[in-house]
Prior knowledge:
Elements: E1 6-7, E2 11-15, E3 21-25, E4 36-37, E5 41-44, H1 45-55, E6 60-63, E7 66-69, H2 73-79
Antiparallel strand pairs: 1-4, 2-3, 5-7, 6-7
Amino acid sequence: MGRLSFLSPKTEVGESAIDGRGLFAAADIQPGEIVAVKGGSIIDGATLRELRASLGAAEIQIDDDLFICPSTKEEREGSMIFSNHSCDPNIGCAVRLCLLRCARSGQGRS
């Protein structure tokens, strides 16, 4: 399975003192520059709880009950962005694009 997530070429994955592997800067990264883009399926909390037993922690929460997560073991490695919790973080999350239905859809409408 290929990569579902994007990691900046200015980063590298390495051993982390926080937990397992982490994402580290391999070159200067400017404020506002994209470091990683999480790929996977959008799932609800109930589905996440079902998957967690086989996948472990591999999700990012994007809303109260929505998460981006791999849906199979084969997708897990390619979906990882290797972010670890920090009380003094130097990266943050932002939703860049989200399409919502604003009117009832019908045949012939896009």
